[in-house]
Design a protein that fits this description.
By secondary structure, this protein is mostly helical. The protein has 19 helices and seven strands. Among the domains are: 172 residues, Bacterial muramidase (Helicase, Ruva Protein, domain 3), CATH 1.10.8.350; 57 residues, no CATH class.
Length: 416
Amino acid sequence: MSIQISGLRPLQMSIRGNIHYHRGMKIAAAFLLFLLLSSSALSQEHSFGDWVAQLRVEAASLGISAATLEALDDLEEPLPRVLELDSSQPEFVQTFTRYLGLRVTDRQVERGQQLLRQHRALLEEVRQRHGVQPQYLVAFWAIETNFGSNTGGFSVLQALATLAYDPRRAEFFRSQMLTALQIIDDGHISAQNMSGSWAGAMGQLQFMPSVFSLHAVDGDGDGKIDIWNSLPDVFNSAANFLSKSGWKGDERWGREVLLPSDFNFALAGTNSRKSLQQWRDIGLLQTSGAPIPVADMQASVVIPAGAQGPAFLAYDNFRVTRVYNPPIFYALTVGHLADRFAGGPPIQHMPENEQAMSIAQVKELQELLNALDFDSGEPDGRVGSRTRSAIRAYQEQQDLPMDSYASISLLEALRR
């Protein structure tokens, strides 16, 4: 899934117990082996060849066949390109304007509408079964793999082995590696055909192996789950994952709104939730100027480009989209693209000249905040929740709009 390791997708980080091994008597032995062979220690103290040998022993203890384990013979040394991509994710450097503009174009909207018509019958069957509206599934499909045309050119086993050998998230990726071997052993895909992203996300809607294990569905009834080539499997699997994560088929994701001139930006952010009636009482309007509709729903105000950019009222399905992939930009783009597929307008209040910050500039901003006793954590050039909290505290002290937005103008104010 368009993977984003701004902490990898939370619900995809299932622990070893979530892997569906059906060899019950071997689980205890596997757990003891895991305690003895800490993956982090292995990746730091052993050569890659030794690490693969230990992985083979652990996989065999879990019941994975010798025939499947022959795929480990084809593993090469860790791929530098995978590690490079792991440390250079676009959400850390792109503005919302840039992020959205790359993914929502007139051509993409037209293509998505055409595919909605082409696969109407299948998508309606999926909606009836799982309660996920077709335009959202096609929006995920568009953003994850450009409607299935770009599922990633990496060997999933090689990519996962590279990341599991690296000590930073060794345990998680080792677990994913074992699950990928189990998927192969269960006959869903061959090791040679198990292709995916640099982070091991697989198929047309980019499932990590653990999510495949928990949520993938045989939509065409052929006895295998093929999320690479079978659209019934692709759409049913994605819809099942969303449904099990809390998707509401009778609600939209959210909407663009107008904020009142005296809006208190301390109320913005996904940690602040209010009823639609409360937001209406505060003065939020639809972009047409009409009052927002009221229903028995909770929502948050999201401002991805700061106080000068667009504002959105985000509902529960927005939060479920973040289960699929956590970044705010991603969830807003999925929702907006789905709206466009359904005939909705472009975002009305995009900033005219949103300037990107370099990693070095963000790091300087963090250092300056820390120097003023606004704790942004260890300066790393990445705008996370701790940095946003420090920005908000500084803005409150300076009587500025508390939008928690890292910007060039904020950096210049701190320099002064």
